[in-house]
Amino acid sequence: MLRLCFVARAAAASSSSSSSSSSSRDDVGGGGEGRKRQHEAFMRFLTANKASFDGVDVRPSVEHSRGLFATRPFREGTTVLSVPMHTLALSAERLLAGERLRALQPPSLEDVQRLLTARSIKDPVLGEQVHLALLVAGERMDPGSFFAPYLDALPCPAVNDEAVMRLHKDVLDPMQLLEWDDHQREWVGVFRALARRWGEKSPPVEVCYWAWRTVLSRMHLLPDRGLAPAEVGSALNYFALSTFERAERQTRWRKRIRAAIGAVLGDANAADDYRLVPTLVPLLDMTNHLSSGNVSVEVQPRPEVGSCAELQAVRAIEAGEEIGLCFNRSHGAPFTLYRFGFLPV
């Protein structure tokens, strides 16, 4: 029943072997020295691209590659860290700007949505997440990718299902275990079908599945162009990692944003192209779960670097305290466990 729980582990081996030209990638999922080199390269990558995290110790756990800790006090309302979206955020639009990835001719969002609809999966947000996962998989296969230091630092497997089951097998009842296994089967089948649709240029299915679990567990829904028009102000501020949303909820977001922009600009169609899209943001995605989160996510304009995804302190944070968001707990235990690899409490 649970034979698919090790698929993500296979993704790590396949991804590493396919990228043998990069010494750091040979260490993906490997020993402490390899992880240390990857972490150091990731820190240099962030600094070189103007991410701001002074006062934050980046201390990722081996299991989830999450862990941010304050090295100094932060007052309520102050910025804890800031990541330029133009250079560092991974969205479908940003990845498809790369010629190498476009040359692989990945399936389009429409291709993905048609396949999901045929499998009775009709949530358009899920379609966008799956599409982003395919693009991340394609990018992962390029050892010279601009995003290589970030991709190398991500955990492989994205979620260690073997460890998850050891910790939670006595928490879930038999029907929940079946449902958890159904998620494995369903999504492995989806990515097998998409890899066939992609053709000979497709990354291995294992890499696509690794990318899917990475996107599902780490992405945020953020504005596709950074901010709404300046007249409306900051477009996004949320306290909980509630980024896996039903299509109806995203639709309500769009309607509210469009109505506000239309009222300000006197044009009901002014915001037709503005929407929230699944996005991976290096460093921001290393925020851990705290049942009482001490930061919120905001998107703000910053001089010289443009729109930034940021963590803002919602209360005073003491030196040594972990920095965290409250992860989404609105879904059932099997899917939440499949998504994050743990049950937020």
UniProtKB/TrEMBL annotation:
Query: Entry's InterPro entries?
Result: SET_dom, SET_dom_sf, SETD3_SETD6_MTase
- Cellular component terms, GO, for this chain's entry? nucleus
The segments labelled Disordered in the record are 16-35
Top-level taxon of origin: Eukaryota
TM spans (from-to): none
List where Basic and acidic residues composition bias occurs. 24-35
Q: Record's Pfam families? A: SET
GO MF annotation list: protein-lysine N-methyltransferase activity
Q: Report domain SET positions.
A: 54-328
Cross-referenced PANTHER family: SET DOMAIN-CONTAINING PROTEIN (PTHR13271:SF136), UNCHARACTERIZED PUTATIVE METHYLTRANSFERASE (PTHR13271)
Q: What is this protein called?
A: SET domain-containing protein
Source organism of the structure: Trypanosoma conorhini
